[in-house]
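Researcher: Let's walk through a ligand-bound prediction step by step. First, I give you the protein sequence. Second, the SMILES string for NAP. Third, you return the three-dimensional complex as structure tokens. Ready?
Model: Ready.
Researcher: Here are steps one and two:
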Amino acid sequence: MGDNRTPVTVIGLGDMGAALAGAFLAQGRQVTVWNRTAAKADALAARGALRAGTVGDAVAASPLVVVCVLDHGVVEDVLGPVSGALAGRTVVNLTNGTPEQARKAAAWADEHGIGYLDGGIMAVPPGIGTPGAFILYSGPRELFDAHREALSALGRPEYAGTDPGAAALQDLALLTGMYGMLSGVVQALALVRSAGFGPVDFATAKLVPWLGAMAAAVPHYAGQIESGDYTQGVVSRLAMQAAGLENIFRAHEDQGVSTELLAPLRALVARRLAEGHGAEDFPGVAELLGGGGATAGR
Ligand SMILES: NC(=O)c1ccc[n+]([C@@H]2O[C@H](COP(=O)([O-])OP(=O)(O)OC[C@H]3O[C@@H](n4cnc5c(N)ncnc54)[C@H](OP(=O)(O)O)[C@@H]3O)[C@@H](O)[C@H]2O)c1
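Model: Step three, the predicted complex:
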């Protein structure tokens, strides 16, 4: 298994599943597809994909079965009835879910003699198979190594750990970072719009370069969180930042722009200050979020 001729089955042909199947086809593999709404296989069939009439036929066609549907509940509904046919094959589940859902799916697969890798896709469908895409995988290392070449069709494969929940945890952490950035972006653009500045010009000329420059500081902040020491290399004291945050709040209020996205941040900073950490760096607010005692990589 794992050579470049391994046939692949893709179950789920939504926006993402169709992109995954297309990338396997582009890699020159035999690709069998199944989707609840059969018409979504038309374009792929025109490119050479084999349509399966049932999920059972789909999984029987390949040793490697990639599933990408809406959520883990759908994965259970679709794969549960064909556990017998899946025995001895490998399921790579690229459906978004929680670490606990991934562990439950891995335990189910183990019970039925099915190899299981859980995955998290760090790309949007048009990015699949392009150099910027990467996909996190967790589960047995030997399964990852065996299918690495096939999976590289989708994006750079990144092994997250043996705990089946590791990929989901890291996926959700990356999405958390993304939503933090997007929250700041919509807030900033609402503020400039309120003052009559064009959001597109502002974003292109100023916000994107600014965020890029700030992103360069992320490893430094990560180092502070890893060590729990927020006193080293401080260039922007929390007390100074808290004063600036108040100005941000007042400017939004003056412009008639809601501060509801910013309010939780203001509360955390105020708590950290009240606990006497004004001379430390901003990432110290992480100490108020808990979760500091976990073992890396489990
Ligand atoms: N799109 C993205 O940007 C992106 C990025 C990263 C990760 N993902 C993840 O990829 C997964 C799929 O996303 P998507 O964008 O492809 O979503 P989507 O376009 O909404 O497709 C959903 C898929 O799930 C199937 N499905 C839903 N309910 C079902 C049921 N009860 N029984 C059988 N099949 C069912 C749909 O089948 P029908 O066609 O019959 O409705 C379709 O194949 C999600 O977990 C998502 O979080 C997506």
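Researcher: And what stands out?
Model: The pocket of NAP is lined by residues 12-17, 35-37, 40, 68-70, 74, 77-78, 95-96, 121, 124-125 (CB under 6 Å). The chain has a mean pLDDT of 96.
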